[in-house]
């Protein structure tokens, strides 16, 4: 049975190969000073930067550069961004990039007018902003996180070896996001497949929880089938517009919180992956792929019927003459084959984890309680060892 819920997603999306022109409709809604947030330079190489600067200038905006946002943005970088925004009385934070730029822009947005230390307030104490929030807009260049249409913001603190996400209220969601699938064509294959797995896992996190018959699970199955299908095409031909557009749209659906309404969710793969990321700074999607199969095999007995359904509905496994355990395992094997086909990291040792890190990673793993098995510290360590 679906529980009670409310749903509001105020982000306006512009989707398609002509979507960038809609920046002209959005910009007049905000003041003159725009903080242009981007990463390490891919947008300068592929020409997106020039296109955006031209539109900003045509709209009479003053641009304050804030480049160098790293994958897995850090607390130190957040402080730099806050300073730029404060010094220049910024009216709009325009993030151009992947989830890291979007997440970072949200963190800056709630910190500019906040007198407290943002890491402590938002990422340790999980408090809500009480100050004025600077509006955020996004031009997405990588599909994966769903940050373009949600209130999530993940920040890494290397000193304390913690990577923590805060899901803010709807006032922190981007005011608008521009999604042009062609902008993702230049992504290196490693990043493309990591993003694809991130999408798939966001759906899994919301699917592998609860036993109810609910609409969300049917939608999730369709989204999973779509992303698996399109990923196989995109890996062969990264410039297949149809596949890249399906992947981009599925990413948004996977984490704009609609499919989680009214049902319980898991999120333990993300908690494990984030802690691995805090120790290794590895690519987010790869931290998830490297912990997923040992995790799902570990919890399978506790949620067997859902794993049977997953095997049949998502992977087309024929159940005739087989036990539930066999069907469920065949589903996970099919998923494993697909993951290997994409070239994802399948072990945490491949992405920089060494034996001496296991205890620290386990200590940094937040325990969520919505999955089929509520983990103890020993369960976390056991799964991490399986992932080596
Ligand atoms: O630095 P640039 O030049 O932008 O290069 C980036 C970066 O190196 C590159 N890239 C992006 N678009 C490109 C491109 N290269 C060529 N052509 C393009 N079109 O790709 C690399 C990775 O980018 P990044 O933004 O770091 O990736 P992603 O979108 O996966 O974001 C990862 C961050 O988002 C957080 C992760 O933890 C991580 O910190 N997440 C945010 C979530 C949310 N807001 O809800 C949920 C997720 O589960 C996730 O935790
Ligand atoms: Zn994710």
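^ structure tokens above, recovered residues below v
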């Amino acid at each position: 049975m679906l529980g009670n819920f409310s749903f509001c997603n105020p982000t306006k999306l512009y989707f398609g190969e002509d979507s960038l022109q809609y920046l002209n409709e959005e910009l007049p809604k905000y003041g003159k000073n725009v903080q242009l947030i981007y990463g390490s330079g891919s947008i300068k190489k592929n020409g997106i930067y020039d296109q955006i600067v031209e539109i900003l200038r045509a709209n009479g905006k003053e641009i304050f550069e804030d480049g160098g946002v790293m994958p897995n943005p850090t607390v130190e970088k957040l402080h730099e961004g806050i300073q730029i925004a404060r010094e220049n009385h910024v009216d709009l934070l325009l993030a151009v990039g992947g989830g890291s730029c979007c997440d970072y822009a949200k963190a800056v947005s709630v910190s500019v007018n906040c007198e407290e230390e943002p890491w402590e307030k938002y990422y340790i104490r999980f408090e809500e902003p009480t100050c004025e929030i600077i509006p955020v807009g996004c031009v997405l260049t990588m599909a994966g996180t769903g940050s373009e249409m949600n209130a999530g913001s993940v920040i890494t603190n290397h000193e304390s070896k913690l990577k923590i996400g805060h899901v803010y209220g709807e006032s922190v969601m981007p005011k608008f996001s521009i999604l042009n699938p062609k902008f993702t064509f230049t992504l290196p294959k490693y990043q493309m497949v990591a993003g694809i797995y991130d999408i798939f896992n966001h759906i899994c996190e919301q699917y592998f929880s609860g036993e109810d018959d609910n609409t969300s699970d049917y939608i999730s199955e369709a989204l999973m089938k779509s992303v698996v299908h399109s990923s196989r095409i995109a890996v062969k031909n990264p410039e297949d517009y149809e596949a890249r557009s399906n992947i981009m749209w599925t990413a948004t659906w996977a984490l704009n919180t609609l499919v989680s309404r009214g049902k319980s969710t898991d999120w333990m793969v993300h908690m494990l992956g984030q802690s691995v990321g805090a120790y290794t700074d590895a690519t987010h999607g790869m931290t998830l792929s490297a912990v997923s199969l040992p995790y799902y095999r570990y919890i399978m007995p506790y949620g067997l019927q859902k794993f049977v359904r997953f095997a049949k509905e998502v992977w087309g496994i024929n159940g005739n003459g087989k036990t539930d355990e066999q069907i469920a395992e065949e589903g996970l094997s099919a998923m494993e084959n697909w993951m290997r086909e994409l070239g994802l990291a399948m072990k945490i040792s491949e992405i920089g984890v060494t034996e001496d890190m296991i205890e620290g990673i386990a200590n940094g793993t937040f325990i969520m309680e919505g999955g089929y098995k509520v983990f103890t510290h020993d369960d976390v360590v056991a799964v991490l060892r399986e992932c080596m």
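Residues 215-236 form the longest helix (22 residues).
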